Amino acid sequence: MKKEAYLNKLETLKKWAYAYYVNDNPVATDEEYDVLYHEVLDYETANPSEVAEDSPTKRVGGVVRDEFSKATHIKRMWSMEDVFKTEEVQEWLDRTVKNVGVTPYFCEPKFDGASMNLLYENGKLVRAITRGDGLIGEEVTDNVRTIRSVPLSIDYQGQIEIRGEVVIRKDDFEIINKERKAEGENTFANPRNAAAGSLRQLDSSITAKRRLVFYPWGLGENTLTEANLSEKMDFIYALGFLEPPFVRACNSIEEIEEFYHFLIANRDDIPMMMDGMVIKVDDTVKQEQLGYTVKVPKWMCAYKFPALEKVTKVNAITIQVGRTGVLTPVAEVEPVDLEGAMIARATLHNYDEIERKGLKVGDSVILIRSGDVIPKITKVLADRRTGDEVDIVRPTACPTCNSEVLDEGTLIKCQNMDCPSRVVNSIIHFAKKGSMNIDGLGSRIVEMLVEEGKIKDILDLYTLRFEDIEGMEGFKEKRINKLLEAINDSKGTTLAKLLSAMGIEHIGAVAGKSIALEFGLGIVDVNEEQLEAIDGIGLEMATSFVEFMRVNREFVLKLFDKIEPMVEEKVEAVENPFKDKTVVLTGTMSVGRGVVKEMMEKLGAKVSGSVSKKTDFLIHGEDAGSKYDKAVKLGVVTLTEEAMREII
What we know:
- By secondary structure, the chain is α+β, with helices and mostly antiparallel strands.
- The strands form six sheets. The chain has a five-stranded mixed sheet with strand order 2-11-10-3-9.
């Protein structure tokens, strides 16, 4: 085959693929498609330097990464303000009219998936980035290239960011879960989780098998000249992107409500999971006039659907043990379908809630789920009881390690740091920034080390050797040495930081520092009375700390031997305007807020994370948000970072 014939066959293959995967209207049989596909593939295999960038053969994946790199959006990806009632929609409309006058609105379904930003340059897809924190996300281009509804090339030569939602259709979701169940793998909880998990596969060939679909809903960087967003989106659809099944231009609350209820009535027939409807000011000039808050655009909102309810039966109560040892009861229920998600478990938060609801095993209950909210039991149908129901008893021992638990009423806790249920999350907390700050020891690495038996608790980190890690997936010599060096560098940290890293319930950085300064390495033997004598330490904190040290005394002493923490001397702060005052920090400062926090603490200030009537000063940098607004409302003294430094 000559190159000209290859290019002609390639164009035909692309048209057939588009008709099948995007239009859902095949124009060739599967056999015809397969024959043509392999003809194209054979030519590309023989002529690798001539493979077209947008060839359908590139959709199968095969790139395997060690990890995902971070990438920056050219223009920020925003969250959305949520509204739930007609009155709240009207309030939102009134605000837009007040600021920009009467304006048309553009409404469309809000699909429940994973937000994605596609960057095209000179007609080619060059980067795909997850939403992340809105400024920086994970670069998943290799995986997104496998999504059939994402064009690899478009008829547009400028730089453009196309935003949208990666989803899995409900029917495909059921197929995927059946396949996973047949292969002995865990099934996905819902289509949104399946979509997000599929995008984060290190092996792009796995993503290629997941039947992902991309629906665009907006733009970032672009030079399109259309006056309205809906017109710009029509241009995007014309480039080869999928169009939502329904969109509507609305000019009044009545028209918005009509479309909203139309979507609710048809939600079962729409192939994708929806959790609401998006309302946008259509005029792009008026969008910019309305502007943004710290978190959301003022020109768009999400009108969320009502929560879905189903009646089901509680079959059992299981207990989850969290990082800090908190025991959380979970209701195992008769599986019910809620908007495409098969729900078999519901959170109960704590045993006090079980007692308040009067819940028993065997009870019929009302289960509710709304959007991203975890399914929960809202009501026990006691009138349906048969007499066979069983009371739920508060646990007295950890279900994993059988250690005696500390029952504080609302919270029941396992204090054993060696408890297998706590190990992975306790190590992740121990290593994270703000604790021991062990660079390179992220959550996935910790999981791998524990799964492969390289470590079984925090202490094992300090006996890791090069040969223990050598040969593990993604670990080359340089990376292994860097990780071991970071672990070693964590030795000699302050006792206060080590205390914070242990994850003791109710003991944060401020309390940990106070206790470390007061008792030094003798903290393992302090009693509640001694702790309560420290300003800011109450009975609940003291009880938790003493119980933790009782259960983990030998473990903590071994940590002291390994890490040799530095015991800081208690120094009385000189008189200054911040001594014994409660200070809150917010906004972006010239140095990290941790540096400013330490500076304030050395001056004798108590640094709090939230503003209240007891706050004496709010010190702020650039982009101060809700904390600043609350401080002004409460009459708290506000200082810029520069003013604070002048006072010092």
